[in-house]
Amino acid sequence: MPIKNNSLNNVISIRGAREHNLKGINVDIPRDQLIVITGISGSGKSSLAFDTIYAEGQRRYIESLSSYARQFLDQLQKPDVELIEGIPPTIAIEQRTCPPSPRSTVATVTEIYDYLRLLYARVGTPYCYQCNCIISRQTIDQMVQRIMEIPQKTRIMLLAPLVKGKKGEHRDIFQSILQKGFVRARVDNVIVDLKTIPKLARYKTHEIDVIVDRLIIKGDIQSRLYDSIAACLELGEGVMLVSREQEKTWTDDILSERYACPKCGMGYEELSPRMFSFNSPYGACANCDGLGNTLDFDPELIVPDKHLSIKNGAIEAWQNWGSLTQAHYDNQIKVFSKISHASLNTPFVKLSKETTDALLFGTKGFEGVIPNLKRIYEKTASERILKRLSSYMSYRTCSSCKGARLRSESLSVKINNKSIYEIMELAIEDALRFFKTLKFERQQAQISGQILKEVKSRLCFLMDVGLHYITLGRSSDTLSGGEAQRTRLATQVGSGLVGVCYVLDEPTIGLHPRDSEHLLQTLNTLRNNGNTVIIIEHDEYTIRHADYIIDLGPGAGERGGSIVAHGTLKEIADNPNSLTGQYLNQTIKIELPGKRRNINLKHSIEIIGASANNLKSINATIPLKTFCCVTGVSGSGKSTLVNDVLHRSLARSLYGSQKPPGKHDKILGITHIDKVIEIDQSPIGRTPRSNPATYTRAFDLIRSLFAQTTAAKIRGYTAGRYSFNITSGRCEGCKGQGIKKVEMHFLPDMYVMCEDCNGKRYNKPTLEVAYKDKNIADVLDMRIDEAHKFFKNIPKIERILSTLNDVGLGYIKLGQPSTSLSGGEAQRIKLATELSRQATGKTLYMLDEPTTGLHFADIQQLLKILHRLVDLGNTVLVIEHNTEVIKTADYIIDLGPEGGINGGEVVATGTPEQIAKNERSYTGRFLKKALKYSNCKNC
What we know:
Layout lengths: L10 E7 L7 E6 L3 E6 L5 H19 L3 H4 L10 E5 L4 E4 L12 H4 L2 H12 L1 E2 L13 H9 L6 E13 L3 H9 L4 E4 L2 E4 L11 E12 L5 H14 L3 E8 L2 E8 L36 E5 L1 H4 L20 H18 L12 H9 L7 H11 L3 H8 L2 E5 L10 H4 L1 E2 L5 H5 L3 H9 L5 H23 L16 H15 L5 E5 L7 H16 L3 E5 L3 H5 L3 E6 L8 E6 L1 H5 L5 H6 L19 E7 L7 E6 L3 E6 L5 H18 L10 E3 L6 E4 L13 H4 L2 H10 L2 H6 L23 E4 L7 E4 L10 H4 L8 H5 L3 H7 L4 H12 L16 H13 L7 E6 L7 H16 L3 E5 L3 H4 L4 E6 L8 E6 L1 H5 L5 H12 L6
Parallel strand pairs: 3-17, 3-18, 5-16, 16-17, 22-28, 22-29, 24-27, 27-28
Antiparallel strand pairs: 1-2, 1-4, 6-15, 7-10, 7-11, 8-9, 8-10, 11-12, 13-14, 18-19, 20-21, 20-23, 25-26, 29-30
């Protein structure tokens, strides 16, 4: 159904798109509109949006650049499409998490930190970090007095800094120094004679200081000091260095005509943006290199079980060594007991803090466990010992900067009594409030005006995408996929680009329904700026407010890839072929359970005093053998409670995990469960060799089945012959992957079918063995529903394939590479794997937003699986915002009332009907509508 005006200026015209499972689709997408692409999981949404539209738009933009520029950019493969016209440059904002860089924060990603550094450098007030006095300029008299306070007979050098951290050979600098009569300089901390000009690396940064004078401190040098200091200040443009010898090492003090403490005389360099960068050596804390934490020995890992006594092995790091080392440690324990008079039979948890500190950190006559381990760690060359000692270490807050990442000089610069680190610790909404109320005098107001405008606009964009609760200094690798995507979205809005096509993947991930409206306003702002916004989305609110909708289907995998319907909301809702339309017009809906399970709060897991992050020492009860949902607005503390506190505590208790749980008093009822399993949407593998068959272990059974055939026995083939990782059976041309990567240098890299095996992954002899007329490659190429029938007489294989069918994955191939599976498909494979195992009835399943990437129909399928797990006697605990899921729960724990510091409380608990009646609960307000649509009799 083409749109009325198909001018190339008004539409993106696509013809014959066949990427992945797309069936040669034709569609005209209106430009400068908000477009939603929807459809069930695996129907081809990402193939159309990212692998076709984004890939082609990006490819054309890159090809317009010079060949020199192109070599530095990632090349995208040309999509399988006959024609795309009218496509503008494209930008993808995906739901992937940020790269694991500890130096990347919300403020750096959004460029807010760049403006903050500039603001502090231009209008910040420097204070002395020792005396807390405002920094003032020093006179030459004060400088002379300061130098004369250095102990007598100390050797000193007076230097003028000329080059600091700049690249180049600097030959002109050296010539200038010689012309002025100076013969020595300190270059990159090495003293050199300038009779021969030093040859410096052109592309490396250097430091050059002129040595103006060398003296020994004594009473008659004051007159000489005045002349030398004046020369230093003239050369160094108001700044000089006093380098003094202390115990055969030289240390520098900065003296400045511009910045110095009037009380202690400490000199400071002039404020510059790099002073506030934790990625620069001029701003970063020297102890932690700007990371805010250091790797150190952790008492919690050294003494993992505090209920043990010292005699019974509480100090795990001093246990199970070689005989000589163990004898030494046993003797050290006796020495400690004698010195401290501590009982070796008392449980560690009952020892006094004074005793445990002496044991761990040392006391007179006893080295201490941690100093001992540090000494060995620094001296040993044994990889085995290093590996073991590393297991007792964790990242701990830096002792020098206390996690602030910056030097003391940088942290002592204040604006309105706040350092730049204190600003970074503010939540977005608090930071915006701070900058809105910030006032400067006339000159400072003029300097800061544009900077503040940029900071406040970016903070507003972050507020609009529902990230009000996140702190500016939060490490970007701790953001969820949805939070990371919305952070990048806010950055794009701030960039002010026009004429671009933005492609987004479910921007509503992690958003409570209350926050979706603000996000939609941001998307509309992008559109209204003259951009095309294409989003893959399943959120009903967003779909209903789109300008244009494309519904893909009708099924998934090979049964999908076609456009079922496209047009306005009304056209989709009125189209009988559109599954999405049937959910939108309520022809099909997710029904309430016929009867909710009985809640027995006595048979439960009880969290007491959870106070990690923003949790306000709350108690929460999770009834066992139920389907339980944890809800609340974004940032209310759901992930902290479920993942950081509960999951980590259970993992440590049941499996000995080393990850420290979030702060809490205790957890009761752990003995009621024997397993805790976290099921997320992360990939089931990272290479093409991983697939549904390998993940579910069905492939192990299939390989054994082939090894038992007569032909295999005659040839001496074992199950290992059919592994992708063993050279005997796989195709060596492609290493068992079936495809080869061809590097094209300036052109996009290409993936082609392996010509040796024609994509079958195995060598010819291996493929000659058949089971029921099918070789191993034929089996891997079967759809799961076909394989289920094929192996119906092999119970163990049939059981696994049956559960994969039950979770709606019959359409994918048994050997489909994991890299081509969507997040929803990966999660359902994990669920099917759990369903295929023998149930103990004592398992706790934990899922964080399992509806991510799922269509209404997929959600209905998912709910059947989750309730089936509960029917087997297990407990399912879900963090969720989707009211279609929440309304089917047996029990709800709603956190809030807001996000960040205004959250972290238990707002309401109970059944969906009880939550819907709670006027304080935001979840309840939206749940009330969902229950009403479901014809709930108790609402």
